[in-house]
Design a protein that fits this description.
The complex is a heterotrimer of chains A (166), B (665) and C (309). With 665 residues, chain B is an alpha/beta fold. Helices cover 27% and strands 25% of the residues of chain B. Chain B has four domains: 124 residues, Rossmann fold (3-Layer(aba) Sandwich), CATH 3.40.50; 198 residues, no CATH class; 169 residues, FAD/NAD(P)-binding domain, CATH 3.50.50.60; 81 residues, Alpha-Beta Plaits (2-Layer Sandwich). By secondary structure, chain C is α/β, with parallel strands linked by helices. In chain C, strands 1, 2, 3, 4 and 5 form a five-stranded mixed beta sheet that branches.
Chain lengths: 166, 665, 309
């Protein structure tokens, strides 16, 4: 697989929360196989998807992530027996909540990538990057962080200037 | 303030070809807390490691980030080097800029930016790393083996031969299990008892094996290395220390017509009995349900004739507590009684085969007893109904097994082979007889197995009919077997003298109750679950408990013995050190915040979470909180993600570390 | 479905009040319980407030009216310092409150044997306790009561023999959830942004919730700061998301959070949406039985994973 780095107006930040036994190893395999994929993804390693707290996803969006990937072992492959099963329920529910709040779920991808699926890792990361790049920046949470109490308090040029100076 | 050292590896050219390592070193050197940053050709080489060690000492570094290959590759290497330089190894982290960066991106600018960010994240993470001492758990070097069949015997002998004490617990009056019941064994047709009984005697004579027969596990407490097991030793009514095993009591007992379970109830025994002549221990037991003395208070003949005065009608059940460090579960299997519909079980019976109603419809194990030289017929194949020799015999395979609609979907694995063996034994003993086998397909993987099966057809004249039996009924002294031969496409009707059913292999009755006592998991059929189907097939998820034999799933003898020895090897690995050392990546409970909702306990697959009472000085209960046993915790962290107040934290992957990384984005 | 406001029959409440008084007096006199948590008339006409009585003579103070809106379960967890520690506690519960108690039992916060449950057959309570007090009508009834499936609490130690008349009402949350689900993500975001911008982070919703029993809330932590603690839009939004997630599968819809919210944020809407999802995904409904493991503490190998690549 050959990836020529094209230039885009917008390069999204993608954060991947992965388990060490399957997906992290799968990403390692993509490396040892010299597969190419966009450089937008930053990987955070966990022992198990069971360790991944929904708050981390929220935090990632707040910190400016434009897309989030959560990936672990296929059902039945969990190194810790059932961590991925617990994660599956947790995220099935959490994504419904985010959807209801108004987060576009196209920005939040879940996948099973095994240690042997270097190719799948490349595919998942590339797809998400391309998708999010087309969607543009995730502004929702970033805008919230910019806002003062009683939404829209920075409503005069003076205030805006002062705020920008901070 | 932390003094972080960052070391960027070129990995020859593997990293430096696409990542500008000097620039990365320069950039991360500017990060707050980083007091030293450099790049080097091969960090993992000796000079590279020396560079690291020297920098730690000279620069008084407190935390280390090595940006190189995947931590799966060299994390241990660098943590060791860091430890050698006097730092706690868990203060060292690796940033993966090879597999996750230089190898997967070609654009030098992009790769350099990404590498800088990856290192930056790890710098923020390592700031929150804490000193983690290696966890040690004391190990009691004694082991418990549950079940005295071939699996338990093999495991017990292997462990005991390595010089460690073994407690072997068997529910029946004698060890030996199902293998002692078998006549000959496939694929060599050697006599089962000839190879089994020497091993049983070895167990009895082994100075390191303490044998409790007629005993059951009452309670299991503790954890890996430190189990306390309560064993209930049922009253034998015979003093084992006094009994010489002369057997006079058995010859004099007036109750002689009690069906012997060992002979599949076709042979008879007395009320005071040993299940079979080669029993170990050779100490009789009184079956109190059938003994005249216990029923009426009269008789007592056995007591009168016993020279050493070993018969003791007053004997009581005894509870014995043993401390062990490891447990091997080898409780074996049972054959599916197809006429029974167990209550509350999804398994449906097979009333249509007349098992239990037509006396000459027997199961495979009963055939084994008929064929056994020490069996109730002295090795002659005779019909239970009239003692005549069957001239036409029908074997039906897959009874219960592989029948989803009947409740069991798995293959019992041994039936194809033992049925082939049965046809041979039959042909050897009844020269003018004809054996038919109804089968779905023959599954004969295993060394010399397929050859064995072919032999039963080609040399021993068994007729194999591919198809299942639809109906079976008694007609005079014959049993009419109706089925279809799907290979030829015709209906088949055989007037048989005897029918042998290859009934499914199931876990022992009460397997789930034992599992609950042990805290191990089991599947929907009550077979015990291994920790990993491929890579940890003999270990339970519960640390310190190992599996051997058919309690885990249907197995033949060679497989059972292999697994028993493997389980023994696992026990030996545990016993090879005085203390169990483990990586300190375990969950810890912050008791002040814990409200005791025990969500952590509910999601823990290892049973590592216990309930702990917090009391004040007067002994009043303040609250009950969770406690994670570091010897049992596997370090997955599912508890932490589940805990609403985050009062349990996984060392090495704390929220502080994770949030620091996210905030570094 | 009535188009105009219709009165709802609450005539059984006076008989229930009498029955509660008699029963509370009996169990206190006989020493079966050390205290009874119930409702008493408040200062203003037609209002009610929670009360904890420890003397049989105080049993006469107990009432049950349409103004008895509070979920008293909260007094057995967070505010338990006010309730005598030793002995069995009697508690007056509506069907919705009982669900909270059931959930708390499943989470080792309460034991059934420590409680004496006085169940109330309930036709509904008021949505607002703003004065002057009004009668219970199809307009003034609490939104949660429009979807009530527990008018008659079950499994209590004592329930007055009364049958509430419960007219079929428009299911307020279901309607609103369906409306929001039909919007685009951006429209939903705009809706919730508007709602959460009202939040003043008073944490009344947390204080009143029987399931927010943590001694230290994740959202108050600063090492690390998982959720912004400041009462600014970013932190407010995060708080409400975390709150809804933590209540998923546990909240049975007493809607106290929504009632006490001074800024009128439709908090129970989030909770009901989560309940709806858990019902659809795992056929779970909170509060009907004491569960060994909640839906997010358990799994099956056949759980939906259509969203996972």
């Amino acid at each position: 697989m050959k990836h020529t780095a094209p230039t885009h107006d917008f390069e999204p930040k993608i954060i991947a929360f992965v388990c060490t036994w399957c997906t992290y190893a799968g990403a390692d395999l993509a490396g040892t196989s010299r597969m190419q994929y966009p450089s937008n993804v930053r990987v955070l390693k966990f022992p198990c998807t069971g360790r991944i707290d929904p708050v981390f996803i929220l935090k990632a969006f707040q910190q400016g992530a434009d897309g989030v990937l959560v990936s672990g072992c296929h059902p039945g492959d969990c190194h810790y027996i059932a961590g991925n099963f617990h994660a599956r329920r947790r995220f099935a529910v959490f994504r419904k909540l985010l959807e209801f709040i108004g987060v576009d779920l196209k920005r939040l991808q879940f996948s099973w990538v095994s240690a042997a699926e270097g190719g799948k890792w490349v595919e998942v990361v590339t797809d998400l990057t391309v998708k999010v790049r087309a969607m543009g920046p995730m502004t929702e949470f970033k805008e919230l962080a910019m806002e003062e109490q009683w939404s829209g308090a920075i409503n005069t040029p003076e205030l805006q200037e002062a705020y920008n100076a901070i | 303030m932390s003094r972080i050292g960052v070391f960027i590896c070129h990995c020859g050219e593997n990293i430096s070809r696409t990542v500008d390592v000097e620039r990365v070193a320069l950039e991360v050197g500017k990060l707050p807390g980083v007091s030293f940053s450099t790049d080097y050709k091969y960090m993992c080489s000796d000079p590279g490691q020396n560079l690291l060690k020297k920098a730690i000492q000279e620069q008084k570094l407190t935390h280390i980030v090595v940006a190189a290959c995947s931590p799966r590759m060299h994390e241990k290497t660098f943590r060791k080097a860091v430890e050698a330089a006097g730092l706690n190894p868990y203060l060292c982290e690796m940033a993966n800029i090879r597999e996750h960066c230089s190898w997967v991106h070609e654009n030098r600018e992009e790769a350099t930016v990404k590498a800088t960010e990856i290192v930056g994240m790890m710098v923020e993470r390592v700031k929150k790393n804490r000193v983690l001492p290696t966890i040690t758990v004391p190990v009691t070097k004694r082991s418990l083996v549950i079940g005295g069949g071939i699996a338990g015997i093999q495991a017990a002998l292997d462990i005991a031969d390595c010089g460690h004490e073994v407690i072997l617990v068997e529910r029946e009056p004698s060890i030996g299990g199902h293998m002692a019941q078998l006549s000959e064994t496939f694929p060599t047709l050697d006599c089962s008892q000839c190879i089994m009984t020497p091993k049983m005697v070895d167990v009895a004579n082994h100075p390191k094996i303490k044998l409790y027969t007629y005993s059951e596990i009452e309670l299991v407490e503790g954890y890996i290395g430190n189990f306390q097991v309560t064993i209930k030793k049922r009253a034998r009514s015979v003093d084992e220390d006094k009994c010489t095993g002369c057997g006079v009591c058995m010859t004099k007992c007036p109750q002689k017509k009690i069906p012997n379970k060992f002979d599949q109830n076709i042979g008879m025994r007395t009320a005071i009995y040993v299940p079979f002549p080669q029993a170990v221990p050779n100490t009789p037991v009184i079956d109190r349900d059938n003994c005249t003395w216990y029923k009426t208070g009269k008789c007592g003949v056995c007591q009168k004739v016993c020279g050493p005065g070993a018969v003791d009608f007053e004997q009581q059940d005894k509870l014995i507590v043993e401390a062990v460090g490891a447990i091997v579960v080898a409780t074996g299997f049972d054959l599916y009684s197809i006429d029974e519909k167990p209550k509350g079980s999804p398994i449906k019976g097979y009333g249509e085969f007349g098992h239990g109603k037509i006396p000459d419809v027997i199961d495979g194990m009963t055939f084994e007893r008929l064929a056994s030289a020490s069996g109730p017929t002295g090795g002659k194949i005779l019909r239970p109904s009239d003692g005549k020799e069957p001239k036409q015999i029908v074997f039906i395979q897959c009874i219960g097994s592989r029948a989803r609609e009947k409740g069991i979907s798995y293959c019992s694995k041994v039936c194809c082979m033992y049925t082939a063996k049965h046809t041979m034994l039959y042909h050897h003993k009844v020269h003018d007889g004809q054996a038919y086998v109804f089968f779905m397909d023959a599954r004969t993987p295993g060394k010399s197995y397929d050859e064995f099966w072919r032999r039963s057809i080609e040399e021993e004249e068994a007729v194999y009919i591919r198809g299942m039996v639809s109906r079976l009924y008694q007609k005079g002294d014959k049993i009419v077997v109706m089925g279809s031969d799907i290979a030829v496409g015709v209906q088949v009707e055989i007037e048989a003298d005897m029918v042998v059913l290859a009934t499914a292999v199931q876990p022992q009755k009460g397997a789930e109750l034992l599992a609950q006592k042990l805290g191990i998991s089991y599947d929907k059929y009550n077979f015990y679950s291994e920790a990993h189907a491929k890579l940890r097939p003999v270990e339970c998820a519960t640390a310190g408990i190992y599996l051997a034999g058919a309690c885990q799933g249907p197995k033949d003898i060679p497989e059972t013995v292999s697994q028993a020895s493997a389980a023994a090897a696992k026990v030996m690995t545990l016993f090879s050190k005085d203390q169990l050392e483990r990586e300190p990546i375990v969950a810890r409970v912050k008791e002040s915040g814990c409200v005791g909702c025990f969500a952590c306990k509910k999601v823990c697959a290892y049973g590592a979470v216990e309930e702990k009472e917090i009391r004040d000085r007067q002994g009043n209960l303040i609250k009950t909180v969770a406690f994670v046993n570091p010897g049992v915790c596997a370090g997955c962290g599912t508890c932490q993600a589940t805990c609403p107040s985050k009062s349990v934290e996984l060392d090495g992957y704390t929220d502080e570390q994770v949030i620091a990384m996210i905030e570094a984005l | 479905m009535p188009l105009t406001s219709q009165p709802i029959d609450t005539s059984i409440y006076s008989a229930i009040t009498d029955a509660i008084k008699t029963e509370a007096e009996r169990i206190l006199t006989e020493g079966q319980v050390t205290a009874v948590v119930g409702y008493a008339a408040a200062r203003r006409k037609g209002s009610a407030q929670p009360i904890i009585i420890t003397e049989a003579t105080d049993a006469a103070k107990l009432i049950f009216t349409a103004a008895c809106v509070n979920n008293l379960a909260v007094y057995l967890t967070k505010a338990k310092k006010e309730v005598p520690k030793s002995g069995k506690i009697g508690i007056v519960v509506k069907g919705c409150d009982l669900k909270a108690l059931t959930g708390l039992m499943g989470e080792s916060q309460l034991k059934r044997e420590d409680l004496y449950l006085i169940g109330v057959p309930c036709a509904g309570v008021l949505g607002s306790t703003v004065q002057p007090a009004t009668g219970l009508t199809t307009d003034t009834i609490a939104p949660k009561c429009t979807e009530c499936d527990a008018h008659l609490p079950t499994g209590c130690d004592f329930v007055p023999l009364q049958t509430p008349v419960t007219p079929e009402l428009e299911q307020k949350y279901a309607t609103e959830i369906a409306r929001l689900e039909a919007l685009t993500p951006a429209e939903r975001w705009a809706y919730w942004k508007e709602q959460f911008s009202k939040c003043i982070k008073c944490y009344a919703c947390r204080q009143v919730c029987p399931f927010c029993f943590c001694e230290q809330c994740l959202c108050d932590r600063n090492k690390p700061q998982m959720v912004d603690t400041t009462p600014r839009p970013a932190g407010n939004t995060a708080w409400h998301i975390v709150r809804a997630m933590h209540l998923a599968g546990r909240c049975a819809g007493c809607a106290e959070c929504e009632r006490v919210c001074p800024m009128d944020i439709p908090l129970n809407l989030l909770n009901r949406k989560m309940a709806k999802e858990l019902k659809e995904l795992y056929d779970h409904e909170a509060g009907f039985e004491v569960l060994d493991k909640g839906p997010l503490n358990s799994y099956t190998d056949k759980d939906d994973q259509s969203f996972i690549k």
